[in-house]
């Protein structure tokens, strides 16, 4: 294999011989390579800054030799790939790792205050120090990005040489050298001072550089830089407005993650023996035509039986949304969730269990009638489950869930037949709410009015974050969705206190729609925390009854009351009501909706209207 450029760095283990003579710089967990430090993100290692390289095979930015394949047919079909791959490991057995490139390239020296390209400091090979002062260089704290996902260097030269009225920049270079220093008076942008030795421009601070139109006033537009793809990626003129960002800002990189549970008949986790043939097989309705096709593509014995192929074809057709118009991605993703809900409700029979089965969902043995007064029904013990979470793309500046036309940036220049993914094996408890009682409750005027306030606030946030407000997706806030979401949070908090689970090791999966009213709480880590049967035991009706009652009673009181309960709005943009970090909010890894659309008043009611809560009857003296 042709070695990559010498300036690349990789992130892997320390103390082993690196492949291609590339030095190791730090280590990240496999899960972080999907959720935190995925392709296109920035990572700080010691005093240096790098960007995670893309997945182009010709660029060798990700060694697939150390990336085992993951198979999850339902999710792969949704995302248009054949399979997934685990990120390279960063342990002592790893010969390779994630490749990175230095970014940003603009650095400053704290001694001589020079501000210039990294190579212009003449650093020794493999080090990031000033060749003159022999002190560590400081990567630029500021970068620029556009809503299409491009990322570039902050235009320091144009910022210094701008005209007094903030108009267009001076044409041509002045021949001077940029300097960066801090006045030390405050920690604000006003104390960061940039100057040029040409003497034609006064020393200016970075104050005002974060204004929405700051770079537009300089006549600057995005030119389409994609540093994570390196020199192999052609620069295409973008033309969108640029925004200044801090290098470590969460707006610099936001992953687009999609996940699916492995459910029958795709829950054996094996490689798909008919990969690449399903689209053609779907055209045949009768067994004879399918058999003829299988005979044509396999010279020897079929890897699967004809009955199994027909069952798989039927399962795929069931997940296709009904309707004449071609289904959108969102429609197909909802269909995937609908199928999970059906399987969680029905479970799988004891006879279906096998050594390779990765989904075992059974009805508890206890008397479920004890849950009737709570309005809870249909608990299921998910004794074995597997979830695959795939990194589909990433965005900058905008939330990928805010618009139907989101600016998703692909992970490679050329199309790939795989995506990075992680698999989580664990267990969980699934429960539903009684449809009759739920239907009556959600029609109450007080409930509808309270949720309408949240939905209006959330819709406003979605429109503000969308590139085109008219195309913003509708808010998912409904009475049953907010109720199920808040219930899931209080149950996770309760189990973290009573059953010994760290809250961050549990995760919610909501099924809230006109024909769905359920929640799955399951172990959400790839390690051993909470995967030894303890969570499943909490799903037995007697224990679950006590857990729900205790969780609801605990939600009656918050250390921030009465402010928390009586708040007209909370969280960013008013997307929560009675919810704060002292009562129902969870670690971000546990929540599907970033800790928004929560209201414990829908569980327990308010002092003025105690009957507002779905569980108000169990709180009555």
Itemize the secondary structure elements and their pairings.
Elements: E1 9-11, H1 32-35, E2 42-45, E3 48-52, E4 69-70, H2 73-79, E5 83-85, E6 98-102, E7 106-108, E8 114-117, E9 138-139, E10 142-145, E11 151-153, H3 156-160, E12 178-182, E13 192-196, E14 204-205, E15 243-246, E16 254-261, H4 278-281, H5 287-297, H6 306-318, H7 329-346, E17 360-362, E18 376-395, E19 418-433, H8 435-442, H9 445-465, H10 479-498, E20 506-513, E21 516-523, H11 534-537, H12 541-555, H13 563-566, H14 601-604, H15 616-619
Helix pairs in contact: 10-12
Q: How does this structure look, described?
A:
The protein is α+β, with helices and mostly antiparallel strands. The strands form 4 sheets. Strands 4, 5, 16, 17, 18, 19, 20 and 21 form an 8-stranded mixed β-sheet that branches. Strands 9-7-8-12-13-14 form a 6-stranded antiparallel β-sheet. A 4-stranded antiparallel β-sheet has the order 1-6-3-2, with no helix packed on it. The protein has helices at 32-35, 73-79, 156-160, 278-281, 287-297, 306-318, 329-346, 435-442, 445-465, 479-498, 534-537, 541-555, 563-566, 601-604, 616-619, and strands spanning 9-11, 42-45, 48-52, 69-70, 83-85, 98-102, 106-108, 114-117, 138-139, 142-145, 151-153, 178-182, 192-196, 204-205, 243-246, 254-261, 360-362, 376-395, 418-433, 506-513, 516-523. The model is unreliable at 1-20 and 165-172 (pLDDT under 50). It is globular, with a radius of gyration of 28 Å.
């Amino acid at each position: 294999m042709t070695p990559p450029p010498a300036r690349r760095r990789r992130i892997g283990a320390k103390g082993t011989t690196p492949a291609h003579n590339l030095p190791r710089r730090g280590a990240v967990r496999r899960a972080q390579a999907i959720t935190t430090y995925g392709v296109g993100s920035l990572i700080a290692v010691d005093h240096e800054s790098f960007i995670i390289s893309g997945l182009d095979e010709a660029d060798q930015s990700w060694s697939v030799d150390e990336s085992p394949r993951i198979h999850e047919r339902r999710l792969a079909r949704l995302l248009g790939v054949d399979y997934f791959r685990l990120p390279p490991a960063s342990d002592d057995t790893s010969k390779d790792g994630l490749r990175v490139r230095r970014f940003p390239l603009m650095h400053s020296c704290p001694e001589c205050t020079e501000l210039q390209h990294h190579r212009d400091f003449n650093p020794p090979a493999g080090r990031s120090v000033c060749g003159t002062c022999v002190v560590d260089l400081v990567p630029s704290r500021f970068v620029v990005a556009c809503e299409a996902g491009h990322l570039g260097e902050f235009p320091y030269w144009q910022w210094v040489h701008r005209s007094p009225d903030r108009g267009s920049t001076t044409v041509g270079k002045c021949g001077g050298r940029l300097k960066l220093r801090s006045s030390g008076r405050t920690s604000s942008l006003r104390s960061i001072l940039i100057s040029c030795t040409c003497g034609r421009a006064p020393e200016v601070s970075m104050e005002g550089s974060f204004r929405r139109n700051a770079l537009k006033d300089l006549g600057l537009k995005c030119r389409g830089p994609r540093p994570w793809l390196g020199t192999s990626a052609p620069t295409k003129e973008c033309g969108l407005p640029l925004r200044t960002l801090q290098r470590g800002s969460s707006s610099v990189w936001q992953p687009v993650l999609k996940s699916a549970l492995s459910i029958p008949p795709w829950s054996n986790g094996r490689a798909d023996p008919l990969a690449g043939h399903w689209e053609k097989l779907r055209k045949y309705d009768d067994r004879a035509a399918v058999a003829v096709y299988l005979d044509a593509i396999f010279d020897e014995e079929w890897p699967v039986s004809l009955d199994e192929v027909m069952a798989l074809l039927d399962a795929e057709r069931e997940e296709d949304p009904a309707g004449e118009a071609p289904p959108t991605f969102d429609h197909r993703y909802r269909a995937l969730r609908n199928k999970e809900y059906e399987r969680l409700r029905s479970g799988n029979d004891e006879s279906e269990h096998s050594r390779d089965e990765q989904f075992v969902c059974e009805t508890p043995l206890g008397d479920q009638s004890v849950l009737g007064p709570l309005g809870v029904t249909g608990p299921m013990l998910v004794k074995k489950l597997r979830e695959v979470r795939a990194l589909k793309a990433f965005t900058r500046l905008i939330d990928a869930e805010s618009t139907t036309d989101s600016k998703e940036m692909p992970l490679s220049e050329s199309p790939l037949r795989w995506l990075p993914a992680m698999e989580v094996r664990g267990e969980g408890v699934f429960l539903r709410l009684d449809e009759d009682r739920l239907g009556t409750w959600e029609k109450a005027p007080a409930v509808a009015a309270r949720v309408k306030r949240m939905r209006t606030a959330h819709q406003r946030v979605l429109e503000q974050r969308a590139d085109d407000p008219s195309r913003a997706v509708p808010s998912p806030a409904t009475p049953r969705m907010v109720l199920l979401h808040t219930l899931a949070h209080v149950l996770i908090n309760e189990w973290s206190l009573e059953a010994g689970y760290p809250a961050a090791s549990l995760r919610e999966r909501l099924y809230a729609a006109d024909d769905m009213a359920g929640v799955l709480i399951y172990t959400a880590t790839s390690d051993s925390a909470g995967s030894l049967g303890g969570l499943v035991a909490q799903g037995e009706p007697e224990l679950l009854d006590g857990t729900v009652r205790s969780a609801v009673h605990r939600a009656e009181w918050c250390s921030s009351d009465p402010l928390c309960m009586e708040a007209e709005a909370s969280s960013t943009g008013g997307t929560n009501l009675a919810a704060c970090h002292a009562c129902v909010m969870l670690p971000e890894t546990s929540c599907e909706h970033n800790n928004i659309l929560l209201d414990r008043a829908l569980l327990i009611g308010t002092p003025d209207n105690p009957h507002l809560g779905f569980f108000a009857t169990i709180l009555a003296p």
